[in-house]
Amino acid sequence: MEFNDILKQLAVTALDLNTRSPGSSQPAWSSWAIYMNNPKLVDRLAPTLAAKIKNSSFTFDFICGIPDAGVPLASAVSRVLGNGLVRFLWGSSAFKLPVPLDSRILLVDTVAKSGETIGEAVTILKKAGCRCVGAALLAYYDDFSETRDSRFLSMQKRGEILYLATVRQLEKFASAYSV
User: Fold this and answer.
1) Which CATH architecture is the domain 47-168 placed in?
2) Fewest CB within 10 angstroms: 27, 41, 152, 159, which?
């Protein structure tokens, strides 16, 4: 699928789902993370993200969804790719990952803002004896570079962050389809 087709699909899907800000007739473009957790959107975009992952250089054993929004997307992508899915279990208690040590994990999430959640997931995987080979996202906020998590920035520099679009690109394209 071409990049503009992806953006159009996101914009049109937002209008189809009638996503609106409270008390406003305008679409809620500012809440991409909430919007991208919509099951209809996940089902429509999982094959596109899966194709991009398949065509990437990522070599992994398991796909791991980051709670909460990334888990349904990771599940859908995993089904398309036919890979094992790991549901991320984290919190204040000890972390247990139901995979063998030294497993290569690909993180999946919908939207990254500062990248802190991805960075924390990488730290958790390392403590659990696994290796994060990268992260696949539907989108990320590209205007937070000065507050970006250093672990996320390192992954970006190594080419380990894969995404369909930036939020700025989505907002620009989506505004053309606003009613």
Assistant:
1) 3-Layer(aba) Sandwich (3.40)
2) 159
